[in-house]
Design goal:
Largest sheet: 4 strands, antiparallel
Radius of gyration: 21 Å
Strand order of the largest sheet: 1-2-3-4
Helix content: 10-25%
Distance between the termini: 40 Å
Number of helices: 4
């Protein structure tokens, strides 16, 4: 299966922007290990100008992560940046902070890092070698159960049971094939409900859970109906306590019991979804807003349906650019960012969007609300700032 998740929105220009870092890192580590999971990120005065794929607010601090393990932070809203100490040099794709001190970052080769000092320093907590082992054990258990069910199935149910067993076997085979390439599968999203309870999601149906702050991990892959190994591009928690995953094939996955069970929500769209946000609905319900490739945005009605879980409507297109990130603002409005740096805004709980800021010519991969009316956009050459009252580079 081709990797077509959020990474495909980071076009070649983003990759070219990091070539200098890549060459310097290789030179700096000449004679040492070539494994980026073992190489610390190169410390460089150009770190703030690297390609940064995700940005987040951590209290009053901004933290951004990106290629070759670069993590930078700013305490003055982008006027100056400091590079953090990072023990790996793999590309980092997503970052989340639980509070001003505690945060997590994930990326290529199944890496997961944590910080307890506000992003100044980071520790390796998980990697793709562990992911391969946990995923294989989890999915093998599902396959064993499927074959037991097949053996016990009456003649009238044999065909369905056989199909389930075949799908489970295929899922195991996919993980075994991937493991031959080592820790090669990227993690694309991270969500921690608190300092203990967290989830990592990524390519080829990876979903990992910890209940003790990353000391012990378990695979939840077998709990979701995803025998094709579709990618999970992002995970979030809603104000109502629901876990939601945006994925490949227009699918949203929802858990209302902290990950114990999951429901696959068919949105009616078949492309990539790069994010999903919980928004206030009518009558005290909680709707879901999903967004992704080609400017597609879909809003759930909150009304239960026997077949799909909830009813979805696709909103009129305001852009045909990929929507790569979204922010639920303090005033209740929703802001979505496109890959070319434009911002869309909804003031009616996601029922309609209009252009807040037109494209500014940037190529971006992440968005976060900064101080005042500013938004931080991470992408080529670092983090850029735009204001709701006018666009432009602040730093």
């Amino acid at each position: 299966m081709k990797l077509t998740g959020i990474l495909t929105t980071v076009r070649p220009a983003l990759l070219l922007a990091s070539c200098l870092l890549s060459v310097n890192a290789a030179q700096a580590n000449a004679g040492g290990s070539n494994d980026p999971l073992e190489q610390p990120a190169l410390m460089t005065s150009r770190a703030a100008h690297a390609t940064l794929l995700s940005v987040v607010q951590a209290g009053t601090r901004l933290v951004a992560v990106g290629e070759h393990g670069v993590i930078v932070y700013s305490d003055d809203q982008g006027k100056s940046w400091t590079q953090a100490k990072v023990p790996v040099s793999v590309n980092l794709t997503a970052v989340q902070f639980i509070d001003p001190k505690n945060g997590w970052a994930v990326g290529h080769d199944g890496i997961a890092l944590s910080t307890s000092d506000g992003g100044l320093s980071w520790s390796k907590r998980f990697d793709g070698n562990q992911a391969n082992t946990l995923m294989l054990g989890d999915l093998q258990k599902v396959a064993d159960e499927a074959h037991h069910a097949l053996d016990a199935a009456p003649a009238s149910a044999k065909q369905a049971a056989q199909a389930a067993a075949d799908a489970a076997d295929n899922a195991v085979g996919d993980v075994q094939a991937g493991a031959k390439f080592g820790p090669s599968r990227p993690l694309l999203g991270v969500y921690f409900k608190n300092v203990s309870d967290g989830y990592l999601v990524g390519s080829y149906g990876q979903i990992l859970h910890t209940a003790d702050g990353g000391k012990v991990w378990e695979s939840f892959a077998g709990r979701l109906h995803n025998s094709d190994g579709l990618h999970y591009n992002a995970i979030a928690g809603t104000a109502g306590g629901t876990l939601v995953i945006a994925g490949e094939g227009g699918k949203v996955y929802r858990s209302r019991d902290n990950g114990a069970t999951w429901q696959t929500l068919e949105t009616g769209y078949k492309g990539q979804l790069y994010g999903v946000i919980g928004v206030a609905g009518e009558g005290g319900t909680e709707d879901l807003l999903a967004f992704g490739f080609g400017g597609h945005t879909l809003l759930s009605s909150g009304k239960e349906s026997d077949k799909a879980g909830i009813t979805w409507q696709e909103l009129p297109a305001v852009t045909h650019k990929n929507l790569i990130g979204g922010v639920l603002c303090a005033d209740g409005s929703i802001v979505l960012a496109t890959q070319d740096g434009s911002l869309l805004k909804s003031s009616d709980h996601g029922h309609s969007f209009s252009v807040l800021l037109p494209s500014n010519g940037l190529e971006i991969a992440g968005v976060a609300q900064a101080a005042g009316a500013n938004f931080a956009l991470s992408g080529v050459s670092g983090v850029h700032f735009v204001s709701a009252s006018g666009s432009g580079k602040v730093n």
